[in-house]
Amino acid sequence: MALSDAELRAFEEFEKAGWDRAASRYHEHWGFLSCQSAEAMLNAAQVVDGSRVLDTATGAGYVAAAAEQRRATITGVDFSAAQVELAKDTYPEIDFKVASAEALPFAANTFDAVVMGFGMNHLPNPEAAFGEAYRVLKEGGIFAFTVWASPKPGEGFGIVLTAIDNHGEANSKLPPAPPYFRFADSLEAHRIFNLTGFVEPSTKIVPQYWRHKSPDDVFNAFNEGAVRATAMLQSQPARVREAIRSTVRNEVLKLKKDNVYLVPVPAALSSARKPG
Ligand SMILES: C[S@@+](CC[C@H](N)C(=O)[O-])C[C@H]1O[C@@H](n2cnc3c(N)ncnc32)[C@H](O)[C@@H]1O
User: How far is residue 82's CA from residue 89's CA, in Å, rounded to a whole number?
Assistant: First the structure.
């Protein structure tokens, strides 16, 4: 069922407060994972030396930094002031600003490429972000974004969400929210690309792996370094959270390879071109 405007605004506030709080923990737990698909996303967006690139929902700026390595001219934006501070500290040579992906402070036809790493699943109104990417792209420019692939057994999200389903108690502390894995579905991504005016939509799965030293690192990443999943876990009674931790740990123990726990967390990478 469609969410009301008030529900969408409440969800946006929940996300913003959550990212302001979780910025450094996300960096610690998820940064080495999410940056594994940055090169594939920049390839999909055809970013080369001299490209003018916008990285939206930039977080600590991993994709922006990868684009800078290609000698692109890069700007990163995020709606969380804490993330933008972290990005400026981490990559002081890059231009970062506070801005929403749904209302970009740039003129039409400015960029050769717009990219967004793992941001789409946090937006109250993703269609607005597609529209803004389209508006600020030059003709022929490409919009590419990653989201977490749909959860599967034996993979990061599948392990944790199944454990929450099996042990968790229904909690009303989460605000009503858009579906988290909506754009992991390539048909839905292509539908919104087409509706926005983009052409040549394409989607592929990009492998990514956590290489953890401790079997508790996966639980800790969700328990401390996210927004919706963290709120879901934190709102459980302590004994339930402990049962979830223990189930996640047992699943992660099965993934030991050499000296690490090798946990697949694939990305779904979608891209399309503005005609011209
Ligand atoms: C999962 S993190 C991804 C960070 C980074 N791009 C990466 O690849 O790891 C999601 C980011 O989206 C940002 N975000 C969420 N909603 C946003 C919005 N409406 N506009 C801009 N940024 C947003 C959050 O502040 C957070 O930094």
Answer: 11
